[in-house]
Amino acid sequence: MALLHFSERLKQLRSERKLTQGQVAMMVGVTRSTLSTYENQTRCPSYDILVSLSRVYGVSTDYLLCKEDRQYIDITGLSEEESAAIRQMVYLLQKSKK
């Protein structure tokens, strides 16, 4: 996948999670119209809002800013056995793509 622009990445993440602009805006503490300006390249979010967006979408700020194309999965709270099972699944999926 080619690297996207920040605004495209925001739209992509929101769409993948089947969220409305209003829902995301409420989660990060801005208005729907403000979120729309981020998605339309009219305005950039503050650092605090950027961090909030990354938490809402479960991605790093680097991923959100299109500095990297790598996604991370938060497995906090899972047992060691559950964590190992997820790592194994990811390994097998990546191996099958090679």
How are the SSEs ordered, and which strands pair?
Layout: H1 6-16, H2 21-28, H3 32-39, H4 47-57, H5 61-64, H6 80-97
Structure description:
By secondary structure, the chain is mainly α. It is built from 6 helices and no strands.
Produce a short descriptive summary.
With 98 residues, the chain is mostly helical. The chain has 6 helices and no strands.
Radius of gyration: 15 Å
Question: What is the assembly state of the chains in this entry?
Answer: single chain
Spans of 5+ residues with little confidence (pLDDT < 50)?
Answer: none
In DSSP terms, counting alpha (H) and pi (I) runs of 4 or more, how many helices? 6
Mean of residue pLDDT values: 89
Task: Give the beta-strand count.
Answer: 0
Structural class: mainly alpha
**Beginning-to-end CA distance, first to last residue:** 15 Å
Report the major sheet: none
How helix-rich are the residues, as a percent range?
55-70%
Note the run of SSEs as H and E: HHHHHH
Provide the β-strand percentage band: under 5%
- Overall 3D shape: elongated
Main features:
about 100 residues; elongated; single chain; 6 helices; about 60% helix; mainly alpha
